[in-house]
Each structure stands twice: as structure tokens, then as C-alpha cells.
Design goal:
single chain, 149 residues, alpha/beta, Rossmann fold, five-stranded parallel β-sheet, 6 helices, 5 strands, 17% strand
Length: 149
């Protein structure tokens, strides 16, 4: 099972860095360079999570967050910006972003946020697999089967 992350970033160097760090964190990454491309991708195949710049050509990051919320209200969203204002930050948090990162990005903060972004997916997958394969669950299954005989 893979966890997809859509990155909307118009700076090519920044987009490559974000994609590399997200891939290292275990995400399947898709990147777009403007807001209109991102809206098209969100409509076609909504990702499991979104990392977006605030200012993009075409639709801005807040429009992308709103569009993702229509498809999946619980999807983790990270907003990265070099142009944050109190108004933008409040609006972003009202739309349900999990974090606002300020540019220039601090790589350790970005890594922590990416790991936190993928935690629900990782822990759900791990608990499903570990519970299925747990010796305790296997013992319960076998003792239940014996009682039914």
C-alpha cells in the first residue's frame, strides 16, 4: 500500500528537494508547477496528502487546499510559504492544514512534518499487519476454532 503526496511548487529546485525528502519519508510523489495543474490532478486522482506553496501561478495554495477538502476532508495538508501573513495562516488552519512551513525551509522541520503526515497511514498499516500476524491473535483464532468443534 502506498501513500501518495501531491507537491504543488513553482520553484523547480525547491520542488526537487521536496520530492526527494518526501520519497525518503516513504511517499509516492507527484509534482506539479502551478495551481491549475494541481487542481486538475486533484480532480482526476485525489492524493492521500498535499504539500503546497501558498503563491503559485494559476490557483493559489488555499484554493488547492479547499479543493482537496471537498474530495477528502481528512487528508493531511502542509502549506509552505515565503509570504505568510497572519490572515493567510489563520485561513489555512481553518481549512485544516496540519502545518505551515516558512521559507527558506528548515529541512529538519520539513522531515518531521512529512513523517507526522504519514503516521496515520503507517500506523494503520502496521497495526493491521501486526494484529493479523500477532501470536496472541493467532492463539485466539486457534482456541476459538477448537471450541467450535
Amino acid at each position: 500500500m502506498s501513500f501518495t503526496l501531491l507537491i504543488a511548487e513553482d520553484d523547480p529546485d525547491q520542488a526537487k528537494l521536496l520530492a526527494r525528502l518526501a520519497a525518503e519519508a516513504g511517499f509516492d510523489v507527484s509534482s506539479v508547477a502551478d495551481g491549475d495543474q494541481a487542481l486538475a490532478e486533484l480532480a482526476a486522482t485525489p492524493p492521500d496528502a498535499l504539500l503546497t506553496d501558498l503563491r503559485l501561478p494559476g490557483a493559489d495554495g488555499l484554493a488547492l487546499i479547499a479543493a482537496l477538502r471537498e474530495a477528502d476532508a481528512a487528508a493531511p495538508v502542509i502549506l509552505a510559504t515565503g509570504y505568510a501573513t497572519a490572515h493567510n495562516a489563520v485561513e489555512a488552519f481553518h481549512l485544516g492544514v496540519m502545518d505551515v512551513l516558512f521559507k527558506p525551509l528548515e529541512l529538519d522541520a520539513l522531515r518531521l512534518t512529512l513523517n507526522a503526515c504519514g503516521k496515520p497511514w503507517r500506523s494503520a498499516a502496521a497495526s493491521t499487519n501486526s494484529r493479523r500476524n500477532s501470536p496472541r491473535v493467532a492463539r485466539r483464532r486457534s482456541s476459538t476454532a477448537r471450541r467450535r468443534r
